[in-house]
Amino acid sequence: MRVMLPIWPNPSHLYPVVPLAHALQAAGHEVCVPSHPEIAEAVASVGLTAVPLGDRADLPVPMGPGRPYVRERAAVAEATSALGVGPGEREAWDSFSQFMLPAMWDFHPFGASPGEPQPVMDRLVDLARHWGPDLVLWDPCFPGAAVAARAVGAAQARFITAPDYWVHSLDLLRDRADRLAGAGAVDPVVETMAPVADRHGVELDDELLRGQWTVTPLPVGMRLPVDTRTVGVRWIPHSGQTPMPDWLYPVPERPRVAISLGLSWRRYLEGGWDHVPLLLDAVSTLDVEVVATLDRKQTANATRIPDNVRVCDYVPVNQLVPTCGALIHHGGFGSYAAAAAAAVPQLITDSPEAGVTATEEGDGTGATRHAASPATVRHVTAKRAGAVLDIGRPDVDAMREQITSVLTDPSFRAGAEGLRADALATPSPAEVVPVLEALTAQHRR
Prior knowledge:
Blueprint: E1 2-4, H1 11-14, H2 18-26, E2 30-35, H3 40-45, E3 49-52, H4 70-83, H5 87-105, H6 119-131, E4 135-138, H7 144-152, E5 155-159, H8 165-175, H9 177-183, H10 188-199, H11 206-210, E6 214-216, E7 230-232, E8 256-260, H12 263-268, H13 276-284, E9 289-293, H14 296-299, E10 309-312, H15 317-320, E11 326-329, H16 333-342, E12 346-350, E13 358-361, E14 364-367, H17 373-382, E15 386-390, H18 396-408, H19 410-424, H20 429-443
Parallel strand pairs: 1-2, 1-4, 2-3, 4-5, 5-6, 6-7, 8-9, 8-11, 9-10, 11-12, 12-15
Antiparallel strand pairs: 13-14
Helix pairs in contact: 2-20, 4-5, 4-9, 5-8, 6-7, 13-18, 16-19
């Protein structure tokens, strides 16, 4: 079986799929990972075949500067107004419309004529026609991959690492199509996907947009109640590897606390780091050793680094987190999974009263909160595996008390052990491979 894994070019989209890709290879299947050339070296570094879809010099930098998508964002704002998105729908719709759609527009030209060249999508379809995949397992920020699968008769399914904001939003758009039409607003998914489908002679239908099934490592408690066939796979934390630092072991006698606020988050967002100095102040008087994986952008507003804080630009989470008594993080699912796999309690920086919205921050983009944090917060606190550090109304003393409580109250460790048990009860990547084989045989043409 040949399996194509097209991904949006960011390590946070690559690393979750690596264990499954390795399991497919170990079972004797061929795997390739097509994407923007920017991610090719990272793909090759994890032992997978990278297929750059063009030359870096000729393609836009994903989510790069100077790509505000003014026309596209205005169309989405009109659609949002016409849909009458309610409070209970806002989180999913905002995550989809403000973060997922702009990621798609890098490679799926909004409202384009089918006759216009689409360099990345054209190369992906051409690759599929020559390489001949049996299964295309696609990233929801790279949905044109479903067009490539349909064009060659391959089975196609989605690999998602977040609540299914994609299908939830498709349902919303379908159920309120009359409102869109009445307001003269466009369906942003159709405007994003129709040019790709039309150009390659593929019908834009529900199966194309939703996938024939869905694969996800997300815990059941974090999933949205959408009507899709879902295959669960254990989330095995994976990240880019570097040599283990000599200070990591032996683990100190006093508790070690890790701070990780998102590798991809800091890569694309200029703003949203005002809480970092307060967080460092909160841990400064505690009898703990802190390892903060922060870069200069994130620590720019800190007037000093406390004596008990070691700042490192990067340490692989699978090396660092198992040595810790707690992980302070931004709510990203990769960080959540690393802590859950190691049964380490979590403290999530969040702004509970804020929505999930993109903001303009100087020359770049900021955000009121991480798009994943609401779901992470609900799940972690429901399992009593951690607590929330409110960065919307930060209080250093309150943060200090919460960190102390999570480190010393055994109920948080018990909750974290529960998250680990849930993960171990989910089928491993090796166990999922036969399921993918059977589904592929059923759906390919």
